[in-house]
Amino acid sequence: MEQEVGHLPVMLEEVMLALSPHPGSFQIDATVGGGGHAVRILEAANPDGRLLGIDADARAIERSTKRLSGFGHRAVVRQANFEAMADVAKDNGFESVDGILMDRGVSSQQLDDDDRGFSFRSGDELDMRFDTRVGIPASEVVASYSESELADVFKRHGEEPHARRIARAIVAEREMGPIETPAQLAQVVTRATPRPKNPRRRRIHPATRVFQALRIEVNRELETLPAALESAVDLLKPEGRLCVISYHSLEDRIVKRFLARERRGCTCPPELPICVCGKEPRVASVGAQPQLPSEAEVAINPRARSAKLRAARRLPA
Hints:
Number of strands: 7
Order of helices and strands: HEHEHEHEHHHHHHHHEHEHE
Strand order of the largest sheet: 3-2-1-4-5-7-6
Number of helices: 14
Largest sheet: 7 strands, mixed
């Protein structure tokens, strides 16, 4: 099948090698998006392998359902946040699976949808929610959070060095009128941000970190990730594979520490001479940690440049 126009699945070959889908295998794509990875997984799992695709975004569900329709009953697509993966899997016959993929990136379609607010180039509603049925839109965060709360969000979720200065500018701007569109917010952030001295940093839009921070805040992305990782390991069969693609240091740090803890097993203090907790390692690494996209892929798909892939296999009990 051809790739969907405008959407290139990130690190596709690396994911396929690490995930190793095979005929008859059961797979979960916990962030199915446009279905790019899912198509290749289902093709590799021919003729009887099955895939459960999950996504919080209703539009992603619509796209992936259409794209995977040719696989018939082998592809099951459900709208849910991936923190509910365990329940969704059990409700649809995926209680024990051979592989799970979690691609944490914002898709090209989401960035290109003008009415979503994910991109600072769009001019419509400042929303940023993957699932518009829950939570509050980014416009409400911008309108209601105090200066200190905004600065904390920008610093904690975006690692923005000028967080306080930008927060102050937003509060001053909203006193003159509401900040309602992504383009309007981007202008406020740009005016408040000093011009970088490093020429390489000048190629990055000044609002990039602020928009990342707001998206993480409204979707509770860092709160839901640990629960999703825990569910993923619980669902894997022995020798089953888990692949996680992260796009910024905050997410990657959570994934890295979770997998390190699961590889170690024992949680006893280091000063104890013997283990008393009884916890055994549950996973082992698969390949280099992390794997990065090739220069050739980044040249074709610049949105892959910050991706990091970590993979593990479930150890027998």
